[in-house]
Design goal:
Order of helices and strands: EHEEEEHEEE
CATH architecture: Roll
Oligomer: single chain
CATH class: Alpha Beta
Number of domains: 1
Distance between the termini: 22 Å
Number of helices: 2
Amino acid sequence: MLGYITLGTNDIEKSSKFYDELLGEIGAKRFMESDSFVAWANDPTKCGLSVIKPNDGNPATVGNGVMAAIACDKPETVDRLYKKAMELGAKDEGPAGPRGDSFYAGYFRDPDGNKLNFFCMT
């Protein structure tokens, strides 16, 4: 259903480096970019993630209650990616682990404060 998710940034270079390394862990690569945005995907015809400087010229801010959730194949992948995000300077918002009977996730905030998680159904 989703085509892509866009997160605001005030530092394209720093944010791009963070996501190059983090999303590279699951094989995602840059597939579009300009001076104001960079987009990554495993397959450009499926849902991707991008960071962008706001078009209106105002500073990027974090949307309260907004979160991007990135699907993984198994809990070990969630663990690995959550750990990588922490190594890259992300802020913990809930360590990787089970949430109920069939949901496994790790929550974090990127360098711009955007909330994301890696998850899988178990």
